[in-house]
Specification:
The complex is a heterodimer of chains A (222) and B (250). With 222 residues, chain A is mainly alpha-helical. Chain A contains nine helices and two strands. Chain A has a two-stranded antiparallel ribbon. In chain A, a hairpin with a 2-residue loop joins strand 1 and strand 2. In chain A, helix 2 packs across helix 7 and helix 5 packs antiparallel against helix 6. Chain A is globular and about 65 Å long. The two termini of chain A are 32 Å apart. Chain B has one domain: P-loop containing nucleotide triphosphate hydrolases (Rossmann fold, 3-Layer(aba) Sandwich), CATH 3.40.50. Chain B is built from ten helices and ten strands. In chain B, strands 6-7-8-3-9-10 form a six-stranded mixed β-sheet, sandwiched between helices. Chain B has a four-stranded antiparallel β-sheet with strand order 2-1-4-5, covered by helices on one side. In chain B, strand 1 and strand 2 form a beta hairpin. In chain B, helix 4 crosses helix 5, helix 4 runs parallel beside helix 6 and helix 5 packs across helix 6. The chains are: A mainly alpha (222), B alpha/beta (250). Chain B: Keywords: ATP-binding, Cell membrane, Membrane, Nucleotide-binding, Translocase, Transport. Chain B: It is found in: Cell membrane. Chain B: One of its GO terms (biological process) is cobalt ion transport.
Chain lengths: 222, 250
């Protein structure tokens, strides 16, 4: 059972940002996001200021920028959407590199890209400097409802178990000569996903049994 | 004789889908005993275990733990008295740290503060895992997780420890370490296992469950050397293992 150390998004370190209380970091991230989202989309100077602020924070965290940049791939679907916007939006047209695109669409796409990137980078910085466990304690201190925090705690705990199971199923599939190269193979992937779902559901029941066996009555102690 | 720790009488149970798993099981376990529960797959061992702390309710017959009947009214006390260690430690360890996991049971019993800390540390010391108290369970090796799973139950100071396949998936060294730990505990043990050498090593007495009834109950050595009984209930010794020549542990 090769469980790695720390979480995949976490970058081990001892900077002031790493040591800052998790609930403050969550609040700071939330405040930053609200401000970024609320900024008018043509206030490019303001966005530049946010980017500089974020760069300073990342610098202070001593997390290598490349480490964060690699993980911004989660933004990809939004990037695709942002790039499509100028082509699908209507209204007055404008020329970019000899291609006619929608003026509104272009502005909206650029704004989406900027706001999205700022948000993703800020969130990744939080994830890189905060252990999942501390993050949960921070949310608890912020009085986030117990049930929500518990659901997140279970997710953190079982993420590795479920991905491990998924990985083993993949290895088992490939060991029997399977590879998902064309859509004809997708039904197999769908069935695997179904099996994984059922296994996780059954694990949930077994965990619940184990909790009941230690006197769980519906509320977490403390 | 004194009140048995575990007193199962005429226990029968059918699952809601109609499949009957137990047909009148009688089982008594006395204080300080270590008993192996043997039987082929599908014999009803897990079903029996889930009756011991009231997860399943008896269809007929009764279960009592140190004289206290397993009934809804005293489920909390029953679950303190009967500590079940499940087969997959990932099912048992669901909190973020070893400490929180071991504290879960006693905290549910209303224990707090210094006493809770004492219980947690004592339970972890009993399984030799006190150094790992602040680690997340999913960063431990499988053998370590199994030991922490035992500690989560020991922290409730149970009267009987019920282990479901304690040696499964362990490498030989972890298997031996767990045996040493189980032997060192001053607690009554009921151990469900397919690992017959392990049963012989740890449990002086064995009970064989087959087809939902107890078909044998006696000294582990006698059960394992009764070839006719073994064959009739799909029990087989591993290749090369003979209880007659197995040396007792010093």
């Amino acid at each position: 059972m090769g469980a790695g150390h720390g979480h995949k998004l976490h970058f081990h370190g001892h900077s002031a940002l790493h040591r800052a209380p998790a609930h403050l970091k969550v609040l700071a991230l939330l405040g930053f996001m609200v401000v970024v989202v609320a900024t008018p989309r043509d206030a490019y100077l303001a966005f530049a200021a946010y980017a500089v602020l974020l760069a300073v924070v990342i610098g202070a965290s001593r997390v290598p920028p490349a480490y964060l940049l690699k993980r911004t791939v989660v933004e990809l679907p939004f990037v695709v959407f942002a790039v499509l916007l100028p082509f699908v939006a209507t209204g007055p047209q404008t020329e970019v590199l000899g291609v006619s695109v929608s003026q509104h669409g272009l502005e909206a796409g650029v704004a989406l890209l900027i706001k999205g990137t700022l948000g993703v980078l800020a969130s990744l910085t939080l994830a890189a400097t905060t252990e999942p466990q501390d993050l949960l304690l921070g949310l608890e201190r912020l009085r986030v409802p117990q049930q929500l925090v518990q659901i997140m705690a279970f997710m953190v705990r079982y993420l590795d178990v479920v991905t491990g199971e998924m990985q083993r199923m993949k290895v088992a599939r490939e060991s029997r000569g399977f590879s998902a190269r064309n859509p004809r193979h997708w039904p197999v992937l769908a069935r695997s996903a179904g099996a994984l779902f059922i296994r996780s559901y059954e694990r949930g029941e077994r965990v619940h049994l184990a909790m009941l066996s230690r006197g769980y009555t519906g509320r977490m102690p403390r | 004789m004194s009140t048995p720790v575990l007193d199962v009488r005429g226990l029968a149970y059918a699952y809601p889908d109609g499949h009957q798993a137990l047909f009148g099981v009688d089982l008594h376990v006395h204080r300080g005993e270590r008993v192996a529960l043997l039987g082929p797959n599908g014999a009803g061992k897990t079903t029996l275990v889930l009756h011991l702390n009231g997860i399943l309710a008896a269809g007929a017959g009764s279960v009592a733990v140190s004289g206290l009947p397993v009934e809804k009214a005293h489920l909390a006390e029953i679950r303190r008295r009967v500590g079940i260690v499940f087969q997959d430690p990932d099912d048992q360890l669901f909190m973020g740290t070893v400490r929180a996991d071991v504290a879960f049971g006693p905290a549910n019993l209303g224990i707090k503060g210094a006493e809770l800390d004492r219980r947690v540390m004592h339970a972890l010391e009993q399984v030799g895992m006190e150094e790992y108290v602040d680690r997340p369970p999913h960063h431990l090796s499988f053998g370590q997780r199994r030991r922490v799973a035992v500690a989560t139950v020991l922290a409730m100071e149970p009267e009987i420890l019920v282990l479901d396949e304690p040696s499964s998936n362990l490498d030989p060294a972890s298997r031996r370490e767990l045996a040493d730990i189980l032997r060192s505990l001053d607690v009554t043990v009921l151990m469900v296992t397919h690992d017959l050498p392990y049963a012989l090593e740890l449990c002086p007495r064995s009970v064989v469950l087959s087809g939902g009834t107890v078909v044998a109950d006696g000294a582990t050595y006698d059960v394992l050397t009764d070839e006719e009984l073994m064959r009739a209930h799909r029990l087989e010794l591993p290749f090369g293992f003979d209880p007659r020549t197995a040396l007792p542990r010093p």
